[in-house]
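In the laboratory, one determines a bound structure by crystallizing the protein with its ligand and collecting diffraction data. In a computational setting the workflow is compressed into a single prediction: the sequence and the ligand go in, and a structural description comes out. We illustrate the idea with flavin-adenine dinucleotide.
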Amino acid sequence: MENFWGEFTDKLKTTFEDIEGKSRKDLNLIKNIPSMMAMIGELEGDELLLWLDQARKIKKRRDPKFPPINGDFYDTRHVLTADDRIVIDNVRKFMLEEIEPIATEYWLKGEFPFQIIDKMKKLNIIGMAYEKEYGGQGKSQLLEGMVGEEIARVDVSTCTFFGVHSGLALNSIYLCGSEEQKKQFIPEMIRMDKIGAFALTEPDVGSAASMGLKTTCKREGDIWTLNGEKKWIGNATFADYIIVWAKDEDDHQVKGFIVDRISSGLTTEKIEDKMSLRIVQNALIKIVNVKVKEERRLQNANTFKDTARVLKMTRAGVAWQAVGCARGAYEHTLDYTMKRRQFDRPIAGFQMTQDLLAQMLSQLTAMQCLVTRLSQLQDLGAMSDEQASLAKIFCTVGCRTITSMSRELMGANGILVSNKVARFLGDAEALYSYEGTKQINSLVLGRAITGLSAFV
Ligand SMILES: Cc1cc2nc3c(=O)[nH]c(=O)nc-3n(C[C@H](O)[C@H](O)[C@H](O)COP(=O)(O)OP(=O)(O)OC[C@H]3O[C@@H](n4cnc5c(N)ncnc54)[C@H](O)[C@@H]3O)c2cc1C
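The predicted complex, in structure-token form:
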């Protein structure tokens, strides 16, 4: 019987390989089948039963029934209302139909797919949490967060485009603008008829923006003159408005301005050689004697503390982006491990693979629960800076870990951008650093829990 099984299993393996992709009528051409049938025909009684038993086990190993892939293991989606879940479904459909098929191509080219803006307009997902008088829908921050997760789950660059426009630029006007400014600029930006960018970082001033920007502004009559340079500014090559933050030469406080990108003296140069978020058009901006009217100065931005109010909101948004990025990587990897076979079985069936998958899902689930609660606090108007910082740290660190485990589980295929996980892995790096690096957010958190500032 032992010899029988050795020979029979060898034939069976070759047969399975030969069978792959063949139509039913061609099965008789496969050479092993008649000889295997003859071998079975010679078996008797218990031997035949044993054969049946073994054959069933082999078949089970070959055709395992995989459960559906679910990257929302604790069902955080159901914290939303039924109406809001429809919004998420629409975003998912848009991302799968419009972005998924082109994301890798545009990421590799380092170009932005401008055709998606008109399609994205129809989703009506910009400024959803604002009041109706500004063109908003009075929806929750939680919904906005989950929309971000859903977008990043497919493509983090698209989510960053959305976050810079809907989070950084719009929130600057919403939190720091006068009533007239809000009514003038927010509705057209919500409709995406005008796109925004946010220019705080400079070539020599990143983390230390609160200590002093080099870009200056000086008022004469009702006209401000701006001079300086900004770096890393997302959407800046094509945005209609750039929110420029500059230090007042007279009172040395930071002020914000809604500047037209096409202003005389303002030039943008795309940053080309990124290994992260390649679809996002980040730019170096040169500002030489740019004239801005007083009516374009954000009337309620008087010190850097006002800029920080905007950053607090968007840090929460980045935490959601990290959840989406990690979820996309996890779901894609789980699918891969079910399809990829080594040692004659799916790699998903190996203990060490399952250990990594379990670690990834545990981390992801903790991140999802954390940001869900964070946005509930936002909706209550109770989210603190340090709570936003903690979430930004935990989720971007987790995202880095999960995307790197994804890469590991995909072996060599994991470094191919066409297999998606490499894109998530690269994109996780920018999430980790922008809107305050891990260290800067740890200092915000550390200051809150110890009462001691360790910034310098
Ligand atoms: C893809 C991308 C998009 C971006 N988009 C925008 C945008 O739209 N608008 C915008 O204004 N900016 C944008 N940024 C800039 C981003 O916010 C900055 O990169 C970030 O604030 C960090 O600044 P930095 O890169 O100059 O690093 P640095 O400040 O030079 O920091 C370098 C390292 O030193 C560490 N460090 C600095 N200070 C301390 C300290 N006190 N203690 C301990 N460690 C410290 C940092 O944590 C980091 O590890 C973007 C960046 C990227 C990568």
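The two ends are 77 Å apart (CA to CA). Keep in mind that any predicted model is a hypothesis to be tested, not a measurement.
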